[in-house]
Amino acid sequence: MMGHAVVGRPGPRVDAAEQVTGRTTYAGDITLPGMLVGGLLQSSQAHARILRIDTAAAETLPGVRAVITGADLPIPYGILPVSQDEHALAVDKVRYVGEPVAGVAAVDAETAEQALALIDIEYEPLDVVTSIDEALASGTRIHGEVEGDNVHRRAALEFGDVESGFEAAHAVRENVYFFRGSNHAALEQHAAVASAGHDGRLTLWSSTQVPHYVHRTLEKVLEIPAGRIRVIATPVGGGFGGKTDPFSHEIVAAKLAMVTGRPVKIVLSREQVFYAHRGRHPVLMWVKTGFDPEGRITAMHFRSFLDGGAYGSYGAASLLYTGALQTTTYRIPNYKFEGVRVFTNKPPCGPKRGHGTPQPRFALECQLDEAAADLGLDPVTIRRRNLVEPFSMTVNHLRITSCGLAECLDRVVEASGFFAKHGTLPEGKGIGLAVGAYLSGAGLPIYWNDMPQSEVEIKVDRGGGVTVFSMAADVGQGSTSVLAMIVAEVLGLDTADITMVTADTDLTPVDLGSYSSRVTFMAGNAAKEAAEGIRDRVAAAVADELGLPEDGVAAAGGRVGAEADGEKTLSWADAVRAAIARGGPLIASGSYRAPDLAGPYRGAGVGISPAYSYSVAVVEVDCDAETGEVKVTKVWLAHDIGRALNPLLVEGQIEGGVYMALGEALMEEQAYRGALHKGPSLLGYKTPTFLEMPPVESILVETNDPEGPFGAKEVGQGPLLPVVPAVANAVHDALGIRADEVPITPDRVVKALREASRGGNGRIGPEGVPKFDFGRLTRVKIPEGFS
Amino acid sequence: MMRLPAFEYLVPETLDEAVVMLADHPSAVVVGGGTDLFPNMKRRQVSPATVIALGAIEGLRGIEIDDDGAVMIGALTSLRDLAASPDVPVALASAAAEVASPQIRNVATVGGNLCVDTRCEYINMTESWRLASGFCLKADGDVCWVAPKGEECVAVSSSDLAPVVVALDAEVGLVGPDVSRTLAASDLYRSDGIDYLGKSEDEIVATLTVPPRPGWRTTYRKLRRRGSIDFPILGVAAAVQVSDDGIVEDARLVLGAIASAPIRARDAEEAVVGSRLGPEVVARAARLAAEPVRPYDNVDLGSRYRKWMAPVFVARALEDLR
Questions:
Q1: Could you give the ipTM of this predicted complex?
Q2: With contact defined as beta carbons under 8 Å apart, do B155 and B119 qualify?
Q3: Which of A168, A398, A414, A420 sits at a 20 to 30 Å CA gap from A524?
């Protein structure tokens, strides 16, 4: 392979200095002339009919410029075309405590707050549904007016024949697991500023991961042609999936700006962030897996029950994700997935880092450790015997390309000294291992279309300045830096020479957004193609200018010309001018659309990706059997990144993923008392501090994916996945108790240990799953090439 | 962002002036570092019309040892300074060091922590949350959501210093409009989540005095979810006087953050006096100290776990002193 000047070199992000010196302008920092402060009135009811809203007192309060309610925004929306069930402000009904019911715009925050308090609402309370069991029982429906259950979506798919797989098994194991839900707890609260000009144009600045989808939603809900709406994604102070829906405050700010003729800013309070939520679904799981005597999986039957909260959000996809990726790490010859997502009167769940896959991964990896013990195998051997092959198909029609899972496993086992420690550490200390896989971008867009998923444009000015236009939103993962590096690499320039214009629907061509770990792979490929278009034109001009054969021209080190011949080259700027003189404006575009990968069944669009990343984690813990405290002392994480375009950014994502995973494993929980959030603040909602964060040893495995830009795959989400079950497996090694539920809090540990000391099974976890009819089973033919 | 309600802000320059201001403004609240009061005000748990800030008063900051060896600590001394002081008993410095986070300890004061408001998962919430839940006894309501049949507020004493100063037989110096007086630390606290301080509302805590205790060993053990930031959900202060041959001659064991006031475990104290702190004595004292504890499910990790942890933390505290 040709050496690279930029790609593969560790370096800080292009926006790092601005961020760490406090100069970055976040949405909440924006101030426009005449700007009003907007506020949202939160529902005090978990489930109620709205009988009357009286806004008169609020409207006449001096300083108030507008008060709006659901009647002003009657058009429903939702991120998925199949779930258009939300209103920016509640219409007729409220479905969770904290749901926005009215919006005000006032001259300052104090006045806005007073105005909200003056809005008088008469509610008729309805029965409240707060659990999966309650939702499955017949009762008051949260959506729809009739009595019945609160099932949002269900799925039943079978690949191969699980019954014969179980019959052929030497051992069959059944377990139930519960993954409690969590919030993203991003540092930056959601914020948006809207401005409606006298020219009939609307501009929205918002801390969003998905300016394109926000753009589409505003077009629909506000009934303004998309061409007159400009959405600018401001730098995002942490998203993690929490800013991938269109949100009430964005629409309300826009509407208030239109009504008042003045800019309006809405910044959610931390409490409101917990209500806007879209966090990790609580998922109850039942897993039945058959093994042959050597520990090879013969069949798996996986059932999941998702507590979706009050609205659809991404839930139809989340449901399928809880069944999709089990097969991407282990060869499962017969696989059946049944799942249901229910509505409850709680803030809506959605995608959080790993979207619907960390919960089943937790279940699967815990069960494998138990199966290994049953069969007299160690945790590494049972996994090695089941690993998928690179460049293979899974039974559920997922195409696997590069796969460094075996190397990740070997290297992390060696680095951690796993074999020497597992089962041998002193009481209270333990070590656990687990693996995971994640998408490098969802294979399909959220709404059906046959256009590219990422487009990139590049313009070069006469001074040689290169400007890259991409709608990809940098949400802290460093996507802007990665795109700049890719373009710099192709053009033989330094990253500092590249100007990035991103995430602005007026200026940049569409990128679907920063979700599903798609930007490096998809926008990266588009940027590479655009840059190659520029390079080819410049190379042709230089060849002409210097009398060189066109294939003998290269761009490197800021010069363009004959390879290995310093004499016959032009400076980049001269080369650009030669190209413009010959061919006019030096512009190029590139695009990426994933290959058509969907299998022949409904639901096959979820889980497909042009490439999968692989991660293996080993976690060491030191537990206090008296207090139940689980202290993680070290994490080793090997990640198949395909190719590390910037190893520093890759390690940053690994460490961030480990941090978030440890929070979910040990303390983070969106907990409720009934329908009330138990602690909607960063004091009430526990996240690990610096003191809880152990050292992380990152091991980068490079498999050079054939379709990734320079071979790269994702790292933003995958490394989280194996860490959660690795903690549970380590706790078992340390204390002898199974944590079949996360978070593994000290009170639950002590309870399990006390039970164990009295002869109980010493287990944290649910007793069982409800009986449920998952609907008509779809039997899917095993794909060709599956063996 | 939650915002403070409007209020009058007074900045006296002397303690006498502060006392007069407080007398003139009966609903006023006194503030030191404000790390407790202002968040509570933002949540509208309290909405005083007047806040009297003591920060400008000279002479209330600092730690001094008098001729008898008593340590006098000004109420405005920061928790950071208290934590760093070599002159105060170990338990007091370590309790101060475990309050909240470094940034908060830079600002928070000794007087403020001694008088920190009681806490409960139904009260330390925004006004909109409490509107949805229903208001409670401690603010704007007439029912306790933790113990709905009870008539008393069961909010939890959440001061890290409180159990320690009780265990140290410390005294607080109070300055009122008419007289100044001293009050035993144990009398500073009342087992009532609302009216939790045993001083009159027009008195200001000006000093904390820790008597000389030659030959005593002290310790503080704190239970909380994380290694920083969190309030105690159980705190055990222990102090023992041990003879040269290892016999406990006198002891104090005080449990904090498990009820509305610190609880002195007198039975457990008696159980260790006259003995060495051997495993059996420690276990018996731990059992006795924990037995009367009846925590409610109103702070982090609930009631059962905290009940379970009481003997564990008492035992560990005593083991610290072996």
A1: 0.97
A2: yes
A3: A398
